[in-house]
Every structure is written in structure tokens, then in C-alpha cells.
Amino acid sequence: MLIQLKGEKEMSKMIKLFTLIAIFVLVLGACSSADEPEAEESEKLRVAVIMPSSVTDLAFSQSIYDALLKIQAERGGAENFEFVYSENMFQVDDAAAAIRDYASQGYDMVIAHGSQYGTSIQEIAPDFPNTVFAHGTTNRTFVDEGITNVYAYEAASNEGGYVNGVMAAKLTQSKIVGIVGPIDVGDAKLYIEGFEKGVRDTDPSIEILKVFTGSFGDVALAREAADAHIAAGADVLIGTGQMVVGAIAAVEEQGGKVLWLGTQSSQTKLSPNIVVANQIYDWSVTLHEILNKMEDGQLGGESLIITLANKGLYMEYNDGFARLGDVKDAAETAVNGIVDGSIDALPATE
Predict the structure, then answer these.
(1) HEC string of 176-233?
(2) What is the pLDDT, as a whole number, of residue 227?
(3) Regions of the chain short of the pLDDT cut 50
(4) CATH of segment(s) 43-156+283-306
(5) CB–CB of 49/111 below 8 Å?
(6) pTM of the full predicted structure?
(7) What region, left, alpha or beta, does residue 320 occupy, with left being phi > 0 and alpha being psi -120 to 50 degrees?
């Protein structure tokens, strides 16, 4: 009888011990599970971008949006790379408020996609020394002002501009081509100068008509400029900025008699019958570099550029265009020449 009681006491102790171990394991597991989301959250990169127009503008803003989508896919989706955006930030004061708001929310990087936002970045970045800021198209990092957390990015848009100029010179039958420019600054200016050089290097007898509307976004003015060029005999047109949808509409009305060469984003789907080719901006090339530097602890201080050589710029051809074979070979020869240095796509300096 005494032996049996002793066994029961030992058994009771064992049960209590196993119970305590089980409780400990459960608590430990619960703590571990609770910690996992926080670890994932800390590893996720969070990026915000402010842009002057719509993500579907087939031009400047869409180019940065498409690049961020590409990076998100390459980094494993939204659980690893989250980005948010504010579009149609045409008013600089509104954009500045959005930039500050995103930085206050703790985003790892805030991108101000437009050189007009430079002053805002210069003012806001020092207030958030642990946040990375990036803006373009420009080479201003504000390092000379003691700011160390700003990257700048720009495009060698003259390179694809030159290639489009070669194609325009090959395509024109009237020997007149037209340019619908926004404002004579930045990558728009560089693109147009590259185009002019490509035309003249190919056929110096071609007349180049050029109008600057004074706006990146005024679709009506772009259409008026395109109509004026067409009335003057131009049968190949280019333009840049989100206003180009107006110019393309004017070209399309000509029923294939006038052609278009695009830049920044693919414009072929807007009018497959008249868009011959596009210079595409792939900002993921520079954004990848910025993100890698950021993850290595470098918060700013560099200006990066996309080119034909680093594939940040590339030519997209409309395979559905009937006369593509006449000009694609010449275009690819120009691309290869620019990349290997045998062709200078920069305009002559005065």
C-alpha cells in the first residue's frame, strides 16, 4: 500500500513537470510567432514617389511607375518591396507637402520625379537625415550644401533622340520634320537636340520645324503645334512630355500620311498605325543602384544616369509598322555607334 502511494506521488510530480514544460513551449512558440511579422516588417523596403502627371500618361510619370513595378516584381512582390505614389502633383507646393508627409510616415526612400521639385527636396531632406531622397531629371545632389541623403538621376535622352532623328530622316518624303517641345530645359531639351543632330547627320537638306509650347502638360497647345507643323508639310513628328497625346491625335487624323516617333514610355498602343518606334526610359537601372547603395548604408550624394550602354535607355520598335524594315537597320547601326563611341550623339556646343 505504501509503495503504491509513493508511486502515485512520483507520477503526480511527473505530470506537473510535463505540464510546466508544455506551457513553456507554448509560450515560447507564441512569442516567436508574435516576433515574426515584426521581423518581416523591418525587412520590407517602403518607397514613396511623387510625380507631376498620371501613371498612365505614356510619358514621364508612367516611366517611373513602370520601373517601380518592375523592381517590385524582381524583389519578390509587395511583401518585400512596397511603394505608394501621388500623381498629378503639378503644383510644387502640393508636391512639397506630399514629400514631407511621406518622410514623416517613415518611408525608406522618397522619390520626387521632376526637376521642378528640387528646391523642395533641398529644404526637406535635412529634416529627415535617415531618409533617402531621390529626384530627377537633374544632377543636383546638394552635397555642396552639406546635404548627404539625396540622390539625383537623369537620362542621356539625346542618345535615343539621335536614333529617332536617323529614322525620321529615312522616313520623311516631304523632307520636312516637326518637333513639338514643352519647355527648353532638362532632358526634353537634350532629347530634341539629339534628334536634330541625328536628322542633320543623316540628311542635312531636311528642314526641321520646332515649337516649344511652354508647358509639359497642355494637350491643346501640343495639338495646335502639331497641326501647324503638318500644315507646313512635316510628315514625321516627335515630342516629349505628357502633352504628346494631343500631338499624336493630330498625327493620327492624317490617316498614315504623317508618322510619329516616341520617347520616355511606349506610345505605340495609342496609335499603332503611325508610331514607328519609341525611346524607352527604364529607370529601374538607376533605382536598383540607389537601393543597393542605400542598403549598404550610403544615403545619398551621387548622381546617376541612364544610357543606351547601361540599358536604362532602349529602343522599342513597332513590328506592325509596314515600313519598319527600311529604317530599323539604320537605327540599330546608330545605337551600336553611340554605345561603342563611334557616333557622338551630343549636339555641338557653341
Answers:
(1) EEEEEECCCCHHHHHHHHHHHHHHHHHCCCCEEEEEECCCCCCHHHHHHHHHHHHHCC
(2) 98
(3) 1-7, 22-42
(4) 3.40.50.2300
(5) yes
(6) 0.86
(7) alpha
